[in-house]
Design brief:
CATH class: Mainly Beta
Structural class: alpha+beta
Helix content: 25-40%
Oligomer: single chain
CATH architecture: Sandwich
Number of domains: 1
Radius of gyration: 16 Å
Mean pLDDT: 92
Shape: globular
Number of strands: 11
Strand content: 25-35%
Number of helices: 5
């Protein structure tokens, strides 16, 4: 189940909204142009499934979204823990890149989670919306929306990515340190799942 937490952008001391209800989440995000949907979960699809298998499994939903939005490129990104120093370094480098607040000029950021989880933080109209996405969740962040993404210190997810531009992910970083002032993925994930942080 997804989680949405909204705070004023002055800090997380006051919670303006907290809900796990998909209809409430969709209704809260729609006025800021963010698309939130839940697609059917495929229990027969493993987190380690090859990209072609993942794309074929969700062909009907992908084709429908492409017809509506005109995406030119669809791919699969998969990050799952490996017990190597190289993997740990690469995972942390990727995490630090996406943790910096940014926008996209030419493309939306659209992700469908096949497995695992991550949090998109949307900074809009004086508020921060933390959208905890997990298996079955699709989130579409419109171009120009200020945001950041946290995959945690040990990333574990597989997601389908949709792009209008063939160049893929190009971020314009704001230079703000706002991400450091709000609860990160590890803290929210531990609280949400009842695990010890």
């Amino acid at each position: 189940m997804t989680l949405l937490i909204t705070w004023p952008d002055s800090g997380p001391e006051t919670t303006l909204r907290r809900t796990c209800d998909p209809a409430e989440i969709a209704a809260a995000l729609a006025p800021i142009g963010v698309r939130y949907e839940q697609w059917p979960i495929r229990d027969d699809l493993s987190a380690a499934a090859p990209a072609d298998t993942v794309l074929e499994a969700y062909r009907e939903q992908i084709d429908k979204l492409n017809a509506e939005e005109g995406f030119s490129t669809v791919d699969v990104v998969s990050l799952h823990p490996e017990d190597t120093l190289e993997w740990a370094r690469a995972a942390q480098a990727a995490r630090q890149k996406f943790l910096r607040e940014h926008t996209h000029d030419d493309d939306d950021e659209v992700r469908f989670f096949i497995s695992g989880s991550g949090i998109f933080y949307l900074h809009v109209a004086g508020e921060i919306h933390a959208v905890y996405c997990e298996q079955g969740d699709l989130l579409g962040v419109p171009r120009g929306t200020t945001h950041w993404f946290d995959m945690g210190t040990t990333p574990a997810f597989t997601a389908i990515r949709f792009f209008h531009e063939e160049d893929g992910w190009i971020g314009n970083f704001t230079g703000s340190d706002i991400a450091s002032r709000f609860p990160d993925f590890d803290r929210i994930h531990a609280e949400y799942t009842g695990q010890t942080a």
